[in-house]
Amino acid sequence: xxxxxxxxxxxxxxxxxxxxxxxxxxxxxxxxxxxxxxxxxxxxxxxxxxxxxxxxxxxxxxxxxxxxxxxxxxxxxxxxxxxxxxxxxxxxxxxxxxxxxxxxxxxxxxxxxxxxxxxxxxxxxxxxxxxxxxxxxxxxxxxxxxxxxxxxxxxxxxxxxxxxxxxxxxxxxxxxxxxxxxxxxxxxxxxxxxxxxxxxxxxxxxxxxxxxxxxxxxxxxxxxxxxxxxxxxxxxxxxxxxxxxxxxxxxxxxxxxxxxxxxxxxxxxxxxxxxxxxxxxxxxxxxxxxxxxxxxxxxxxxxxxxxxxxxxxxxxxxxxxxxxxxxxxxxxxxxxxxxxxxxxxxxxxxxxxxxxxxxxxxxxxxxxxxxxxxxxxxxxxxxxxxxxxxxxxxxxxxxxxxxxxxxxxxxxxxxxxxxxxxxxxxxxxxxxxxxxxxxxxxxxxxxxxxxxxxxxxxxxxxxxxxxxxxxxxxxxxxxxxxxxxxxxxxxxxxxxxxxxxxxxxxxxx
Length: 509
Ligand code: SF4
Fold this sequence. Notes:
Elements: H1 6-10, H2 32-41, H3 59-81, H4 86-100, H5 108-124, H6 129-149, H7 152-162, H8 172-177, H9 179-192, H10 199-208, E1 211-215, H11 220-224, E2 229-231, E3 234-238, H12 242-268, H13 274-282, H14 314-317, H15 322-334, H16 339-352, H17 356-367, H18 376-382, H19 384-390, H20 405-410, H21 423-426, H22 429-438, H23 443-454, H24 458-470, H25 486-508
Helix pairs in contact: 3-4, 3-5, 3-6, 5-13, 6-12, 9-10, 23-24
């Protein structure tokens, strides 16, 4: 699978079931045969990922492709957790999908990326039931989203390519024979699900609609709600409802495949390069797509915009995510922060645009403020180097980036007297509830956030807090993607605040 270690790999037993008669997708990297192979798989743009790939990719591709897919899956999960409608989810995820995992494309590399990344993530998420469920749920969402993005011509082509015995369309003659019953059954759905309010529109839609005939027990939930016409033990399902069936089939197959993958996982333990990558990826449901700018100042902050004085202003502090607020409060209470807290807050402030000089001023003032016991001399001796080091001005001269949520969550939990970490993970329910109540959130909003915390979905809880605290005035949030980086929270909050203030000023004129 990997170009870099061909010899080693060819001598190793492949991750396959040699006795099961499993087939593989073979193909020389970049060859005509490989191109033809992927053209065939993606003839109808979508795939059920039936045969594992066994071409060659580099370790970099292995990791980057998997991370990119993970970002898309995370975004989808986050949309569901935040109760976004199908339309809103499409609007939020589509740009990310086009950037990271384009599927409606003729490019061989894109097709391979989609195919391989799915199988790599199978390896990561087959280890426990929780991970398997999570992966199946997210992949099924992705499948549904993509299916809905296809033209009806490609949808039909895809369904036909699956050759599922249960998905056979009835003939025109059979449709005419039951046309009255079929129309009466689906007319309410056309009106309320597809918004075809006009009778003429509904009839025209019906004329072009295809029907699938299948044993009624395959769609028992639709039978219960009288959404399908029944005849002699068969249900007649309109094509616009077929996605339910397809996605169920997709999930069942993937569940089975993940179990099979899990059973064969021990073979993979021979590979000391892959295990760390896979372990790292399977904990990656907090991966952030936030790009920090190379000058290390948030895109919305000019150098000088944030300084050691105005960082204390109510306006700026209101843009902080809870983790940064907590660190700030801790610093003000104790006039000191221990190592992890210092690093987390220092990198965050650097990321929002506090320059090195301003940062030194800020930390010196905070540590030596009235009420504390530190002298300027001690600060200069013991801490000055640390803060200069964070800006790449000392030692190895690496200019460090702000920690994303994943890094923050990977650090040891805060002990007594420490303030680093993520409050959605580290605070008890009472403390978190009273903090959320102070943000004027409703009981329903608070419950939903606490529920996410219970499920260990801390970044989803944080994104919900952002939406609930920034949507209160009815002004729309432009970017509704998932937040998995404190600096993204800050940047988005600040943009929203500026827009909000601008709108209020314009209205006052
Ligand atoms: S989810 Fe991330 S940004 Fe939000 S509080 Fe936790 S660490 Fe901070």
